[in-house]
Amino acid sequence: MQAAPVRATAIPSFTDALRAVESVLMGSGQRTARRNAWTSVLEDRRRAKDRVEAQRVLDQTFAVHS
User: In principle, which of 16, 21, 24, 54 could form an S-S bond with 12, CB 3.0–4.6 Å?
Assistant: First the structure.
C-alpha cells in the first residue's frame, strides 16, 4: 500500500490577510492619497522657486543701495 502524497498549502499569515483586506478597502483611497501627495510636491516646488526669486530680488535691491 502506498502512502497518499502530502499536499501542503500555506495558510496565510495574519499580516497577509490584513494586507488583502486593506487593499480591497483602501484601493481608491490610496489613489487619492497619491494624487494629493503629488499635488503637494508640485506646490512645494512652486513655493521654493518663489522663495529663490524673492531672495534674488532682495539681494539685488540691497546691492544697489549699498
Answer: 16
